[in-house]
Amino acid sequence: MKPRCKKYLLKFVGICLVAVAAVFVYRQFVYFPAAVDSAGSNKLSVDFAVERGESVRSIAFRLEEIGIIRDDWVLINYLRQNDLDTKVEAGHFNFHGGEIVAEVAETLLAGQTKQLSFTVLEGWNSSEIDTKLAAMGLIQSGDFSTFVREGGGTAGNEPGGWATDRPVASLEGYLFPATYKIDPLNFSVDNLVARMLSAMKSNLNELGFDPANSGHDLHAILTMASIVELEENSEENRPKVADILWRRLESGLGLYADSTLFYVLGHKKNLVTADFQIDSPYNTRKYRDLPPTPICSPSRSSLNAALHPDLNEYWYYLHDAEGQIHFARTLDEHNVNKAEYLQ
Q: I need a labelling partner for 299 at 20 to 30 A (CA). Which of 31, 237, 253, 259 fits?
């Protein structure tokens, strides 16, 4: 290389080194201090999951993507400067929006997995619970409903152990509807089912269920309670409806409860004439017994109604377009109610 070319090359390299040094100084001593005290663009509450073994670089990149921080390098540099880059652990964390980098780091280093609230609504069946769990990313669709309807994986060996005498494998209706705290990183279907079974047992005990002295066995109580749950919304009228249904069952009249058809059809839309002809033990217009399983998770109100029905002289009921219930003592009275309220 000619001396003159070598001279220009060294000069160019020197300029580059000065430029790199200038950028470094600017980023470290001008840009970084200002960026540490700035918030990301996100202003809303966000749940954020850190997976086991995930790198700080990956975490910072994703936080920048959703607007929690403005620059992933700033968070990485902040953690490294404070010897914290190896201390971020897996978990679910909540960012309320508007945090500066130090606050983001503090949240990540809190070491607390965010517990999620999972609410099972009164009257949901296992398929509806399954749908919500899948939407939350906790299971693959079908995992929960299959587990429940197969009796916890093994018939007669369900989690909780208190319902082993049921006549079917399915745990449908044995799971109490309530709000449960869930650790998403350690979630399992069998653990949730065990907790729901335990809650159902506690509520039955508190309501005075005694299998030795009850006029009906546990499975019948839960099945009736599940029907009452979907047949009548009013806590005041549920014990009256339960009494009617128990008497219709015992007299051989049949329940004629359309809610059992909705269960086998898999929807809650209006029934059509063809639906009433379905040959299924859940068609209580054709079959005079209780259906094989409960049809949903009954509320405490419906459990109480099935356990302690309100004795009355009615044999029929129907609901008008506004959902108001109308009782009748005889079929003639019932037909009058049909003409008046169902037109």
A: 253
Residue 300 lies in a domain: yes
Q: Evaluate whether residue 5 is within a structural domain.
A: no
**Position 103: which residue type?**
E
The DSSP symbol for 162 reads T
Of 202, 268, 190, 198, the C-alpha closest to 229 is 268
Total domains present in the chain: 3
pLDDT in tens, 121-161: 999 999 999 999 999 889 999 999 999 998 875 444 455 56
Strand partners, 94: 47
Confidence check: pLDDT of 6 > 60: no
Range of the domain at 138: 116-206
Please give the structure tokens belonging to residue 158.
């369900």
Structure tokens at 70: 């403005």
C-alpha atoms less than 13 angstroms from C-alpha of 171 in its C-beta half-sphere:
36
Q: ∠107-87-74 over CA atoms, to 5°?
A: 65
What is the percent of the chain with per-residue pLDDT over 90, rounded to a whole number? Answer: 51
Where do the H-state alpha helices sit in the chain?
3-26, 32-36, 56-65, 72-81, 101-108, 126-135, 143-149, 189-206, 218-231, 238-251, 258-265, 300-307, 331-341
> Where does a domain end: 83, 108, 133?
108
The pair of three-digit structure tokens given for residue 83, joined into one six-digit string: 């010897």
Distance in angstroms between the alpha carbons of the first and the last residue of the chain:
103
Q: Do 227 and 279 have their domain in common?
A: yes
127 and 78 assigned to the same domain = no
Residue 11 falls within a domain, yes or no?
A: no
pLDDT band (50, 70, 90) for residue 54: confident
Kindly state whether residue 66 falls inside one of the protein's structural domains. Answer: yes
